[in-house]
Design goal:
Chain lengths: 260, 734
């Protein structure tokens, strides 16, 4: 999978957001957010509950369509100051994979069918080829032997790993993770984080919303701290987590690292 | 056209006349040569509300009409003033007897009964059987052409028989109006009825889509009625003769009926007699059937014919012929007379030589055996009776002050009576005797009689010349008690019309050859199964599948963000759920043809049921779709599935699992609701059961058999449902 990280010029940004705003009714959740993600890097988004980090991630995938601003993944750009068509949205979404907090696997499909659904139905790839690739991905997340089982037969961590494989199967330019371990029992968190860590090492471009500060520190090239709808602070893990400039960032990290 | 109802009302009027009219006795004039001219005024009783015969012109308010104008013309001919006395039909003859007026001019049909009771003038209107078709149908020009066609006729009218004898398939309808509706909708090919009724309909409605394509040799004649021995007839007949000769009658007819219905009076010359070959069914117990032990042809009518032959000293030869072709065979000279409970009617009298009656049915009131509260017609007041709505008996009961429940026939009425749902039913005594003799039913009894009579006679070809001999022989048989003996033998009652006061013995009868309900069901297992397989099941499957397609479309429209679309869907669901399925059915079947869409009954049923299922299942499917978590469609979006793909591959498969139990409910309801299609003439399981049960009086066993079939179909479906559910639940934690 390393070829994904090396096929284009290293200077190029994989993900760009410029002045993204999003309101739900009167509640302005994103108040003009801009950042870039270089390809082959992992970016984590941290911040207090309600700071807009999940909305930001969903906006990046256009699951929640921004009110205004520009987002770009790979070569596909959406400018929300103009009307955006359904086909444009679909083409844009095809550039990224998305891993949900609550996995959202298709319960009526087997593990293998969950992973091959996109490649076979959307990308129209031959079934045999898609299954071979899917098996490789399942191998990678350690679940090849579960391929014929239904999601309800798996543990939460296994379900989330299938979710990751499903997101990777479309060979996206970036994989977006929405708090991938928040819904898991603590003993299952590790297996999921280690899979994600492996992806970062292999050179996938990742954007991860997480509460796991230690994980963020280890895996990220860039950390964004969101607060009240803006990115209050961004930089390397050493800068934002190791030596935060903002008082709010410090308070947040203190609460997370010393909960008692 | 005064038909059964009119004849019946006449009977009621006679009763009324007997009660109220005694003062009129002796007031009749005789002796004077020209009594009407002598008085100088002709008082005419007429309804004034019977268009186009006697009614008030909408503009001028003047009393006009065919009969009114004829009466006026008669007055003019006689040089006397004409005074009209408007009187309801119900009390017309009572008023005549009470000398409120001198003659009735109100389409009084000439019948032997009336001739016996009143002075009847020569006819001034003559109806004949006419064949009505659609205006653009040239395939029918005579009775012979209706073979294999479909006719709509009132089941109790003799036209129904005429059509059946001519080889048509007869759809039973309630009356002329419904028959014409079906004809216009192209559902039937032909309607046979009295020409005057047809002329009146066409003149009234201006309907140009139907035409009179041919005639049937059956006549009904209408004349003036005066009190017996009034002495008016010579003047009336002379005036009518002149009006006929100078074309006035024809002009009046054309004015009101747009056709000449003045006809020519039927002649009845007599020829000499021949040998006696007798046509009879041989399958009509207890009148004409084969004895189960000896195999010999026996029965009321057979024995009467044998006795007549004996009296005449000629051998009797029986020719067994199905009822459908009885009269055709008679006309083909296959035999000389019919002995098969041929009821005397004016139409038959016009077409055949009918002997004096040898079996006389009278109106009888049947109650439960333990009910002593009803002893006469008067006791029906405030009681509930069950009657066929098209029969005379309904009117008799209503006139007596009873509440009348409409039923389909005698069998159903007896069932309701036995169940205590009604207090009585009024019917012809012979039908009742036959029922009691056949079934041995001891739970009902004949509690009283009415004065209405139906008479059965031997029928011969017109102008056969047999009548003197036949009537003479019957007179002797009646006098020497042979007739009564035969009646007692087969009906356990005297139905010969002789005033013996007997005839209450029916409830003591032993069953002769009652077919058990079990045997009836056994005999009809396959016909019922066939109705289920060819109608009920296909109707259910096609309607359900089509209904689901509609339902899915409606559910998606309802969930759509498009306001117009979702409101249209909402309205559809509201209308479908807010109106009775039965009403939807009859609208599709009877209503759509108004807009030029005429569908076969089965198709109409499929459409109505599909639309209905569409409305109900739409809500089930909508709620099933909404029960699928939002994350599912989001996940589908993130892997690039389109709206249609998301629906087809992700949402609907999961929604199916949620929707199957309630949809199965809908399907099982539909199986049973298809029985409603019986009202729009689809011969499905329930209608088949009705057909089978009707002639045998045994509804309990046939309906029970039908119920079992429905239950079995639903059992199979329930089994299929649980298997399907198990399959759908393979991906759900249990």
């Amino acid at each position: 999978m390393t070829e994904h990280g090396t096929e284009e010029a290293t200077t190029e940004y994989r993900v760009t957001a410029e002045g993204v705003e999003k309101a739900f009714g009167d509640n302005k959740v994103l108040k003009g957010v801009s950042f870039d993600v270089k390809r082959g890097t992992a970016t984590t988004i941290i911040g207090p509950s309600g700071s807009g980090k999940t909305t930001l991630l969903r906006a990046l995938n256009a699951l929640d369509v921004p009110d205004t601003g520009v987002i770009r993944v790979g070569e596909v750009e959406l400018d929300f100051s103009k009307p955006v068509g359904k086909d444009q949205l679909r083409r844009y979404r095809a550039q990224s994979g998305f891993v949900f907090q609550s996995h959202n696997l298709f319960p009526h499909k087997t593990v293998l069918q969950n992973v091959t659904e996109g490649p076979v139905v959307v990308q129209k790839r031959p079934k045999a080829e898609a299954e071979a690739d899917a098996l490789e991905l399942l191998e990678q997340v350690g679940l090849a032997e579960k391929r014929a089982q239904y999601p309800f037969q798996l543990s939460g961590g296994q379900q989330q790993r299938v979710g990751i494989a499903r997101a990777l199967a479309l060979k996206p330019k970036v994989v977006l993770f929405d708090e991938p371990t928040s819904a898991l029992d603590p003993e299952l968190v590790g297996e999921v984080l280690s899979v994600i860590k492996d992806l970062a090492v292999e050179g996938w471009t990742l954007v991860i919303v997480t509460h796991e500060i230690q994980f963020a520190r280890q895996v990220s090239n860039q950390v964004l701290f969101t607060d009240q709808g803006i990115i209050l602070e961004k930089g390397t893990p050493e800068e934002v987590i190791g030596n935060p400039k903002e008082e709010r960032t410090r308070q947040f990290l203190d609460r997370i690292l010393n909960p008692l | 056209m005064p038909g059964n109802l009119r004849r019946l009302l006449l009977a009621v009027s006679i009763v009324a006349a007997v009660i109220f009219g005694s003062t009129a006795c002796g007031s009749s004039e005789s002796g004077s040569t020209d009594p009407i001219k002598a008085i100088g005024v002709l008082r005419v009783g007429t309804e004034g509300v019977y268009s186009p015969f006697s009614y008030h012109d909408q503009k001028t308010g003047e009393l006009v009409g065919y009969d009114v104008d004829v009466a006026r013309a008669v007055g003019e001919k006689l040089g006397v003033k004409v005074e009209f006395v408007e009187t309801p039909w119900d009390s017309m003859f009572a008023a005549l007897e009470a000398d409120r007026f001198d003659v009735v001019a109100n389409e009084v049909t000439i019948s032997p009964e009336r001739k016996a009771k009143y002075d009847i003038s020569q006819p001034y209107s003559v109806g004949e059987g006419v064949i009505v078709t659609r205006a653009n149908d040239d395939s029918i020009k005579s009775l012979a052409d209706i073979k294999g066609k479909t006719a709509a006729e009132n089941a109790t009218s003799n036209w129904s028989e005429v059509a059946r004898k001519a080889g048509a398939n007869v759809e039973s309808v309630e009356g002329f109006a419904q028959a014409i509706t079906l004809l216009n909708q192209g559902r039937v090919d032909v309607v046979i009825n009295d020409s005057i009724a047809v002329y009146a309909y066409i003149a009234e409605t201006g309907d140009k889509s139907v035409k009179i394509a041919g005639t049937v040799n059956e006549k009904s004649e209408q004349g003036f009625a005066a009190r017996k021995n009034s002495g008016y007839l010579p003047e009336l007949d002379k005036a009518l003769g002149e009006l006929r000769a100078d074309g006035t009658l024809a002009d009046i007819s054309r004015k009101y009926l747009k056709a000449d219905a003045t006809g020519v009076p039927v002649q009845t010359p007599i020829r000499t007699a021949g040998a006696l070959r007798v046509g009879t069914e041989g399958t009509y117990s207890p009148f004409s059937y084969h004895d189960q032990t000896t195999g010999e042809l026996v029965g009321y009518d057979v024995d009467v014919a044998k006795a007549v032959g004996q009296k005449l000293g000629v051998p009797v030869e029986f020719v067994e012929t199905p009822w459908d072709s009885m009269f055709a065979a008679l006309e083909a000279k296959r035999f000389d007379v019919v002995a098969n409970q041929v009821t005397i009617s004016p139409e038959r009298q016009a077409k055949y030589d009918l002997s004096q009656p040898y079996a006389v049915g009278e109106g009888v009131i049947v109650t439960r055996a333990n009910d002593d509260s009803i002893k006469s017609l008067a006791d029906l007041k405030g009681k509930t009776t069950a009657q066929s709505s098209t029969s005379n008996w309904a009117q008799v009961a209503r006139d007596a002050g009873a509440n009348v429940e409409a039923v389909e026939g005698f069998a159903q009425a007896i069932t309701l009576l036995n169940q205590g749902r009604i207090d009585a039913t009024v019917n012809d005594s012979i039908a009742v005797y036959a029922y009691l003799a056949e079934t041995g039913d001891k739970s009902v009894k004949i509690a009283a009689k009415t004065d209405e009579k139906s008479e059965q006679a031997l029928a011969a070809s017109k102008n056969s010349g047999y009548l003197p001999e036949l009537n003479g022989a019957l007179d002797e048989l009646r006098a020497d008690g042979t007739l009564a003996k035969i009646s007692q033998k087969y009906l356990k009652a005297d139905a010969t019309g002789t005033p013996t006061g007997a005839g209450q013995g029916g409830q003591n009868a032993e069953p002769v050859k009652a077919r058990s309900g079990w045997q009836l069901v056994l005999d009809n297992l396959w016909p019922l199964a066939k109705a289920a397989l060819t109608a009920t099941i296909p109707l259910t499957i096609i309607s359900f599948v089509a209904g689901l397609v509609i339902a899915l479309a409606v559910a998606l429209a309802r969930l759509s963000s498009n306001v117009i679309l979702s409101n249209v869907a909402r309205l559809y669901i509201s209308v479908i759920r807010g109106t009775p399925l039965l009403v939807q059915l009859v609208i599709v079947f009877y209503g759509l043809p108004k807009f030029g869409v005429t569908l076969p009954a089965f198709t109409a049923a499929v459409i109505a049921f599909s639309l209905n299922i569409g409305g109900y299942a739409a809500e089930i499917i909508r709620s099933a779709i909404q029960s699928i978590p939002k994350g599912q469609s989001e996940a589908a979006q993130t892997i690039g599935l389109s709206y249609a793909g998301t629906l087809r591959r992700i949402i609907l498969p999961q929604a199916t699992r949620v929707a199957v139990p309630p949809l199965s409910n809908t399907l099982i309801s539909l199986v049973k609701d298809t029985s409603l299609a019986s009202v729009i003439l689809v011969t499905e399981l329930f209608r088949k059961a009705q057909e089978i049960g009707a002639p045998t009086f045994d509804f309990f066993s046939t309906y029970t058999a039908a119920a079992v079939y429905y239950w079995v179909i639903c059992l199979v479906l329930s089994f299929g449902q649980s298997r399907f559910e198990r399959r759908l639940e393979r991906y759900v934690a249990r």
